[in-house]
């Protein structure tokens, strides 16, 4: 009889893999991942809470590490990570609505990140203008690429992701 992996170990490994993929994807587009007009392809992973609870710490830790490794200011490290965490938690909470899981991370980043850009980096752009530019990047990364990822992974969810206990 084959022994099943320990649930906690599996959860941590899954979260660590998601974090590592987030960091790698951010590194690929690092010049475009920061600033008032930003496009972080790694944000597409913010749809993963639809499949697994491990994605919540996974994308949050990935964001934290990316911000630390690629030279973000400390307020960006803190509040950028918080924006991703908020989006991931709410996405996980509404995971029963497949096509809505992309909305919370788009909104949290669109609302929080412009303030970070203003106070951490001294951006002189108006907050509403930065909300539009950051929002466009988030819609492209999460709304478009993330939903394509969601559709592709949904076909193989039973193979890729461990079945979550009923709540």
Beta-strand residue fraction: under 5%
Radius of gyration: 16 Å
Distance between the termini: 28 Å
Rounded mean pLDDT score: 89
When the domains are counted, the total is: 1
**Oligomeric nature of the chains:** single chain
Tally the helices: 6
Report the count of strand segments.
Answer: 0
Q: What kind of sheet is the major sheet? A: none
Low-confidence runs of at least 5 consecutive residues: none
Q: Any descriptors?
A:
single chain, 167 residues, 65% helix
Topology overview:
Elements lengths: L6 H22 L26 H15 L4 H20 L9 H19 L5 H28 L2 H4 L7
Helix pairs in contact: 1-2, 2-3, 3-4, 4-5
Short description, anyone?
With about 170 residues, the protein is an all-alpha fold. The chain is about 65% helix and about 0% strand.
What does this structure look like?
By secondary structure, this protein is an all-alpha fold. It has one domain. 65% of the residues lie in helices and 0% in strands. The protein is built from 6 helices and no strands. The longest helix is centred in the C-terminal third of the chain and has 28 residues. The relative contact order is 0.15. The mean pLDDT is 89.
């Amino acid at each position: 009889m084959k022994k099943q992996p320990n649930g906690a170990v599996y959860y941590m490994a899954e979260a660590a893999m998601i974090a590592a993929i987030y960091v790698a994807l951010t590194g690929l587009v690092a010049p475009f991942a920061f600033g008032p007009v930003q496009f972080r392809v790694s944000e597409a992973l913010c749809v993963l809470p639809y499949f697994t609870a491990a994605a919540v710490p996974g994308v949050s830790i990935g964001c934290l590490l990316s911000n630390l490794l690629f030279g973000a200011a400390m307020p960006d490290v803190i509040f950028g990570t918080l924006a991703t965490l908020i989006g991931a938690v709410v996405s996980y909470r509404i995971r029963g609505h497949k096509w809505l899981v992309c909305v919370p991370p788009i909104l949290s980043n669109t609302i929080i990140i412009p303030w970070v850009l203003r106070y951490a980096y001294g951006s002189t752009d108006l907050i509403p203008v930065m909300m539009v530019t950051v929002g466009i990047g988030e819609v492209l990364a999460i709304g478009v690429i993330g939903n394509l990822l969601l559709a592709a992974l949904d076909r193989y969810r039973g193979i890729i992701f461990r079945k979550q206990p009923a709540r």
